[in-house]
Write a sequence for this structure.
C-alpha cells in the first residue's frame, strides 16, 4: 500500500519536473498555483497519480486538494479504500 509520504514525494517530483523548480523548494502546504502549475498540468498530475497508484480519480481532485499535503492525504485515503475493496 502507498503511504502519504510516498505519494507526497511523487507529487513533489512531478511539480519540480513540470515547473523546473528544485524539489526541495516545493513546500507541502503551498498552493500548486504558486508554483505555476496550470490546469493542463493539474490534469496531467491526476492522470499520473491514477497510473502510478492504479486508481480512478476525479479530475477536480487537484483543485479540491491544492497542496502536496492535502492531495497526498486524499490519494492515500482513496488507495486504502481501493486496496480494501
Amino acid at each position: 500500500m502507498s503511504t502519504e509520504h510516498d505519494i507526497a514525494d511523487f507529487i513533489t517530483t512531478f511539480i519540480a519536473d513540470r515547473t523546473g523548480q528544485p524539489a526541495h523548494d516545493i513546500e507541502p502546504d503551498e498552493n500548486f498555483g504558486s508554483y505555476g502549475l496550470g490546469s493542463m498540468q493539474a490534469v496531467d498530475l491526476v492522470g499520473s497519480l491514477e497510473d502510478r497508484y492504479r486508481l480512478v480519480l476525479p479530475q477536480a481532485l487537484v483543485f479540491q486538494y491544492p497542496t502536496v499535503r492535502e492531495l497526498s492525504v486524499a490519494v492515500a485515503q482513496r488507495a486504502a479504500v481501493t486496496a480494501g475493496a
